[in-house]
Amino acid sequence: MLTYATPKTASSTTNVVFHPTAFRPVQHLPLKVVQPESPKIITAPALSEDLLRDLFEDRILAIHVPNYCHSFVSHKLSQWFLEQRNLPAYTHELYKDGVPVQEYFGVYRYGSPYNKTYGKPTTSNAHTEYYQAALKSIRNVREACLPYAAPMDRLRAELDENLPMGAQVANYEGRKMFVGIGRITPAADSHILQVQPHVDCLPQDICQLDGQFAANIYLRMPPRGGAVELWDVPALSPEEIAALPQDHDWRAELPESTLIYPEVGDLLLFNTRKPHAVHGFSQGVRISVQCFMGYRKDSPLSLWC
Ligand SMILES: O=C(O)CCC(=O)C(=O)O
Ligand SMILES: [Fe+2]
Question: From CA 79, how far away is CA 86, in angstroms rounded?
Answer without folding.
Answer: 13
